[in-house]
Amino acid sequence: MNFGKIKKVFLFGGSKILLDCARIAIKRKLKVFVFTSKRHIMEKITTDEKTLKDLLNKERIKFFVTKDINKSKELIRLIDDTSIGIGFGEAWSFSEAIIRKFRNKLIDYMGIRLPQYRGGAHYTWKILRKNVIGCCNLQLINKDMIQGKYDSGEILKSEEFLFPADVRVPKDYIDFANKKAIEFLKSFFYDLEKNKEFQLFPLQENFSVYYPRLYTKIHGFINWNWDTIEIENFICAFDEPYAGASTFINGKRVFLKDCVSDYNDGNFHPFQSGLIYKTNNNLIFVCTKTGTLIIKKVLNEDGKNIISKLLSGQRFYTPLKYLEEALKFSAEYTAEGINKKLL
């Protein structure tokens, strides 16, 4: 397929990758319009906690916040034959009318291998499975696609890469993947400039895997009956930029971050699992069935690190009702955030 002459770029959704894509397009003298949702516009996307709104305003990038993209009069008015649309985790599914309006030039950026890892919470699931293969994909959006559930469009550009060994928590994955995404998108805009003919590849459905979206405050409870490495992976999977994997101590809910497995002190009986058996230099050493979990951060519900106040002999535990709820709960997100009717 050929995109022809492109003068306008419509970006849908949120994230730092969307902002970087806007910068790339603007540098190439293209007009950029961002269409986003309430939950994306207030998302903090930089280390100094600047929101997408802050940065779009600072860089004078025109944006619109809408609850339903398919009812946006501004979008319909602005699209013309020189337009291309690119989605970045957008909150909505596009109607057939909008897809037709873009004349088959509406595409989605997916930072995962397809059709593996369909769904959501991609990096959390990757960390749980110790998966280190990353991918940048651009696929055509079609009428059958359901945002966050089902991606079926043909692939027009794809590039795989490996995450390095020091990538451990979601923020690490996001930061590394963003660098890859910038180079990938620069290459795509260069292709557009050169009027490249793209070959389309259908998804291989026999490799399809789906993992649902997650909500950390419900799904992130630690099961102390797991093995050491399983607990470590779980804590890493809900680490920065998320609230952290949670459990209880002294009757209070806490969130654990920054941990590592160790096996020098041997195994422990399952009844000892969760027990703090040593503290040293603001580190706590916690029994698990197959080894030790060394933890650096224990946050209270106000986000304060209370690790210096914890003592040997105290125990982390998670009541069964929270573990069962984590297995039963299905997270759904709207343009405004988590569907609160489910909570």
Molecular structure report:
The protein has 343 residues and is of the alpha/beta class. It folds into two domains: 8-211, Formyl transferase, N-terminal domain (Rossmann fold, 3-Layer(aba) Sandwich); 216-342, Methionyl-tRNA Fmet Formyltransferase, Chain A, domain 2. Helices cover 26% and strands 25% of the residues. The chain has ten helices and 16 strands. It has helices at residues 16-27, 38-41, 52-58, 73-78, 96-101, 122-129, 170-193, 216-219, 228-237, 320-328; strands at residues 8-13, 31-36, 62-65, 83-88, 106-110, 118-119, 133-140, 155-162, 210-211, 245-249, 252-262, 276-280, 283-288, 291-299, 333-334, 337-338. Strands 3-2-1-4-5-7-8 form a seven-stranded mixed beta sheet. It has a five-stranded antiparallel beta sheet with strand order 10-11-14-13-12. Helix 5 (96-101) links the parallel strand 4 (83-88) and strand 5 (106-110). Helix 1 runs parallel beside helix 7 and helix 6 (122-129) runs antiparallel to helix 9. The protein is elongated, with a radius of gyration of 22 Å. The mean pLDDT is 94.
